[in-house]
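Morning run. Coffee first, then this:
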Amino acid sequence: MTARGLGLDAWPDAAAARLLELSADLACVAGFDGHFRELSTGWSELLGYSTDELTARWLAWTAIGVPEEQAYRAVARDLTLQHDARQAKADSEQRYAD
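And here it is:
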């Protein structure tokens, strides 16, 4: 995982990477498509899945900020099976089209 992806541009690379290695916090970068791009090591340690397993997941996030509570509320649904099924169907259709 690159520290730059987590917005730590002002930190030297080695220091930012070490900070993320030692952090007990769960830090991540996720795309608007719901796919994890980068994860800190805490994710694997807490959830028991490898980073590769976690970054292979497709998640649909719904989040809203609640200013009067100074909080965000969010849920995520794992869409990996649906994504893989759509991809397999598209691959199959492409094979028959060729």
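The mean pLDDT is 79. Good start to the day.
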